Protein 1
Amino acid sequence: MVKARRVLITDTTLRDGHQSLWATRMRTGDMLPILGRMDEIGFYSLEAWGGATFDSCLRFLNENPWERLRTIKQHCPKTPLQMLLRGQNLVGYRHYGDEIVRKFVLHAAENGVDIFRVFDALNDTRNIEVAAEAIKEAGKHFQAAVSYTISPVHTLDHYLETAHRFAEMGADSICIKDMAALLSPFHCEQLVRRLKEEIDLTVEVHCHYIGGLAPMTYLKAIEAGADIIDTATVPLAFGASNPATEMVVTALTGTPYDTELELDRLFEIAKYFEGVRQRGGFSRGVTSITHMQVYSHQVPGGMISNLESQLEEQNALDRLPEVLKEIPLVRAEVGYPPLVTPMSQIVGTQAVLNVLSGKRWQVVPDEMKSYLRGKYGQAPGPVNAEVMHKVLGDEQPITCRPAELIDETLDRFAEEIGDLARNEEDVLTYALFPATARVFLERRRHGVEDDVFLTQEQEADQTGGAAMDINHIRELIAAVEESSIAEVTIEEGDTRITVRKGGEAAPGEAVAAPAMAAKPAVPDSYFVVKSPMVGTFYRAASPTSDPFVEEGDEVAVGQTLCILEAMKLMNEVTSEVDGTVRSVLVEDARPVEYGTPMFYIEPLAANLFEDAEVEG
């Protein structure tokens, strides 16, 4: 006879739901009217923060993510709030110093986070140690997540060993994080049963729907002893998101695992979010053939959506099938990392670059180089020696905990951002996303700040249906002209505004072409370095650094010429020839299109030929 026990539900609508389906574009104002009713439902927790929400608030919504957290907590005093923390990466895409990690966790706890779900993309538990200590010191719940994937090195023993280490670190619960929807029902049953037998901790299961296995996987997990499962309200469920709450609650009603949640109240919430979906023009979660192919290419649905966006930006959406074939090859070459942030972005971007450039491993982002250097942690499996040598030469990867080599302090970031920061939260925001945060803080200083409490309807009412009114645009121009910012681009709905010093673009006007220096006459012998992607051109590693190269500099094969910021990563462009830089064709911090000429290099062979003519 089955022993009755209530299965608990974590609602992911406010974080993973709209991150997976709506590119994390739901505004705080669209959450506010329904938060009180969500708080009354009886969820185990509301996943409301972390992941990509922090970055998106700043980058796309012009909202303060800290204020969002405080606001949700104020309206949901009964239900614990949960966040997704990427270990030493926090909510960013690189490792941060230990002091930054500790301070971030402290402020998150003080502002309303009760449960911290912490994972490392490589299941390298060393990358979770400092965050775990900080969570425990703050008196909050430390949920350690095991990132699930399929590979020759990801065995049942691997997951159990990882979970045992988490328990030794003081975890309050264990989460099986199936971000790619690869966890099959019977493998899940086996894993959950072993966890419950060997570790005396609560077990939560987090699956994405994508190919459709998740509901069956949840049922087998519950039968094996899982205590909590993750779902989203139906307008933000299915597809790349999680299974629908209403479906799971109905399936368990009247069973020994009854969730005791009221369907009528759940559907009230669903109807509200359906209105948000319709007004915002957001898509439903659907399963396509490409999504179903996750079982062969193992690319998460959310990652596929990101790849589609990246390729569309590069005017190469038709090459998605090639990229999907390339991703498993890259993943195997770099030791089978789970395809979860940031490794999904790193592996996916490398695959895109391999395909678009036509030369595998010719353009390698800084983040991929850092991964191969061991700066993200220990690769799960062996890295291809040829790839390692091509990217790093004779350099040897590090073996210590990566954060031990990071020398950065909050004071340093406070000094850099100066009086733009009003408090320590602003400094942390700048430490995590320097360029994006500076734009946000500059806009705030000049009063160009959206009201985070406006819903889509209220915003449309105020602007007559347009995303931005003319006063907003004028304020944006003033902010740029009076600040140190060279350029700001704002996208609202179908409107895109780009403002650069000395000029402005009208609503809906195409963004101006990259500012180019006058092209000199180009000898046929010169090598033209063209942009391998759409992105932003940077001559130096940072605003305070010297340019990588100047006109007249001699360069060698493999030497860095510039950085292109694209697809959320910093991509170094290196020289393919030995020679002399004759022209730098793009101004610093300017956008470039695919194929834009950036440098003219006179190859060494041409130099020798000209010298011979002079001597003769």
Protein 2
Amino acid sequence: MSIYDQHLERNAANYVPLSPVSFVERSAEAFADLPAVIHGARRYTWAQCRDRSARLAAALRALGVGRGGTVSTMLSNTPEMVEVHYAVPALGAVLNTLNTRLDAALLAWQMNHCEAQVLITDREFAPAIAQALEILKSERASQPVVIDVSDSEYSGPGDRVGTHDYEALLAAHSPLQRLEGPADEWDAIAVSYTSGTTGDPKGVVTHHRGAYLNAVCNAVSWTMPQFPCYLWTLPMFHCNGWCFPWTVALQGGTHVCLRRVEARAILEAIREHRVDHYCAAPIVHGLIYNAPPELREGIAHQVRGMVAGAAPPAAMIEGMAKIGFDITHVYGLTETYGPAASCVKRPGWGTASLSEQTRLNGRQGVRYPLEEGMTVLDADTMAEVPADGQTMGEIMFRGNIVMKGYLKNPAATDKAFAGGWFHTGDLAALESDRYVKIRDRSKDIIISGGENISSLEVEDALYRHPAVLACAVIAKPDPKWGETPLAFVETKPGATVSADELIAHCRGLLAGYKVPREIRFEPIPKTSTGKIQKFQLRERVKSARAIE
């Protein structure tokens, strides 16, 4: 035993398990009178936000929620969604934020799978929730206690489906004396479900330690200053808002809630509240830079956006730069709490040409500072690929910002962690500066006549045409070549372009075998977070990998 192991034990004075709940207590203590939440006419200071969260925690405890219990939510980006991120973890309970676009059957499946004790739901989603609860009755004996939220900014239809009203419940309970984290930072903080495009979705279980560290990384990697004004364009149900509910609390910032993600609403909020930070998938950034210039009038301050959710096309990064928005590209997955890597902008990049800046900033980058490992490995040998920018392998992570595993799915957990690394399924190259650049998802590589074609490379070429608003390229079965690139395209409002014109445009940017053989002008299916659902497109054309 070392001398440093003697009489130097952990105690309450020198060791506290990490939990992002502590950020809320600090901001309420130090910045009590500063704004915490803005939503329409509603305004809450940090003291009020903490009080409401502590009342919710007390109410949930009275309903029997404790360590390891699950609280599901069906909420838009409203103050209540902020509050559940503070209240539920303070009880040692697990937060399950449901995707508001799911159908009743999948909602019921997820709540049953995570054994939800309580459901907090907005009245807007009453029809789907009512159906889901009926399905649940046939699947389990005990039903979740349902709490209705009547958002001040929602005036549409929607019956109450629960036995409790959210505001009445808060009013009926005194706040907990303190929002405290768990005794063990390895305890689960949330369970988030993957899209489930190939069968039942997987429940990604994350822990307090990882949420704490990733919240810190968000601020550090983005050099987010104290007291940011953060706009909720990213759904908080998606990976717990990439941990930003806790990052904003860490920095004593202001949550500007946004119930509907529309260009006018986004730009009006940025102008009115001097929003300086927001996160979104590429399609939302596209809404901003494709908006009529008059909607951006009056926005003279620096606005910083974070983009992830899909590899952003170069045209998007370039477009945002032209309107003066500073964009940081991050990369991650639900299994890594959202972003776990960032394309850190090095000194000197700013003097490069716009096209070179676009290329540099379009990479997935390097691991977050508190993530222990990120590299590109050969999935068969688990050896790192050469840093030559060409050799492809699979992006893998390891460290504290990686999930605990998949709920009730040990086989999938073991497969994901094979070889001591988390396997992302994303194919990439390691460039000479050790920045990672995604080439494609393994299932999205098109193999034509024995040649590999990256669908992302073809999409990037299409996005460079001024008429293209959104596009997706998939493999189409071909009797001669095996597969050929097929592009689905949505055009910008008022723009016209023919398939022949787009094909000719691509010929000027791509090798001949990579050029799409066919262009289809059809609506492109997307998730609520803006991700394009290629599996649906594959099903349309009966691709061999439609069900992978």
Protein 3
Amino acid sequence: MSQQLQHDVLVIGSGAAGLSLALNLPGHLRIAVLSKGDLANGSTFWAQGGVAAVLDDTDTVQSHVEDTLNAGGGLCHEDAVRFTVEHSRESIQWLIDQGVPFTRDEHASVDDGGFEFHLTREGGHSHRRIIHAADATGAAIFTTLLAQARQRPNIELLEQRVAVDLITERRLGLDGDRCLGAYVLNRNTGEVDTYGARFTVLATGGAAKVYLYTSNPDGACGDGIAMAWRAGCRVANLEFNQFHPTCLYHPQAKSFLITEALRGEGALLRLPNGERFMPRFDPREELAPRDIVARAIDHEMKRLGVDCVYLDISHKSEDFIKNHFPTMYERCLTFGIDITRQPIPVVPAAHYTCGGVMVDDCGHTDVPGLYAIGETSFTGLHGANRMASNSLLECFVYGRAAATDIEAQLDQVSMPRDLPCWDASQVTDSDEDVIIAHNWDELRRFMWDYVGIVRTNKRLQRAEHRVRLLLDEIDEFYSNYKVSRDLIELRNLAQVAELMIRCAMQRKESRGLHYTLDYPGMLAEARDTILQPPTYAD
């Protein structure tokens, strides 16, 4: 039997953004944090590099702001960048207070006012400002925040819960647009439960799984973006999908990212013959922004007809490599690669969704009662290209801001009552799940081929034609069969793919992560690409 559940705050997503929000809410609120798989399956756990913040006395807010604006291809919203950077130090202090074991600087003189934690540098940054926990920062942060959440009796951590769709007043035929909760598939029972909530938060991560090759875990299907779009929220800049330049190229290595911190500590990109190539593409060489490095690698691979290039840090001492990159060293060793002696074979892979659901500084979407934070959202911080290690910072800053905003509204919002249960009376069990698998594979392949690192009008038109056929087929399947995680994810992924294609077709220039051979130049005026759903009320 399906259940009716009620919470003050429903958080869909259990990564850095969702946990930060939950932990910053008052302890008397009843909070549900949903994970569609195991709690550690999201992107946060696998983040390696660190968190960008102004922490050292030699660094400034203005410098961090300028670096972000430069990396963003003229499309960052300066107010959002400044808001994020100005709240960076307090967000890091909050993480330290939670007990995150950041790597300490053994040479720091704390008595003289020095910063006690080690800071590294990554592409696009003019200073060392990346605080980290060796090369497993995401795991350290996630494990710490999860432990804190488990100590809070008001926070329910619910695994194997897949959000199907948001419940809004409009959906129920009522006057108004407010979000009232969500329908959620409980994979343990196979039933779709009804979650009523005073406030609902989308913290579901990005949509990099829309591409055939990605550094992201399997759950990065754009669920929050698709659900918000169907509920009436605008989305923006979904043409900007960041391809991480360096993912391990090995037949047995699934989605293993080679941290940018290696290049920050002197690793060099080389062709198969050992020749360096980044100096030919950018004066910043290996520390150029990710879009430039990824395109350079893509260009060299196509020019030479090779399967990969190589990232080499073997010129550093063995002790340095093992102390700074223990996770990377051990993981590569399992594939027979000793990074203290050998270069690492790498290729670009889809990594981060820079666009998303439009929000303000508090995470408000267009739908009252609905928030979006983290990679699901579009804040204006990342512009046309996200600068390294700003994404985790965005999770903490906006997670805490949304929590503060929710707390301020508690007296004004009552619990929704008498929400209708999910109606599964007209559907049957599917006996053709092969269709889901086929459509999933087709979608990810044509997105990689036609909406990848380099695009053309013809490629985008082909992608648009195919995604519309897929959407019709998926919609028919969704209408007739019981929902499953695979079907829900495919439906969401196809919807977000269509939005990405539409955004890409509207941008008649090359800027940041969107590079098209038909419009190789950059327009004088930088504009966001904003899509408005048909249900959106002006």
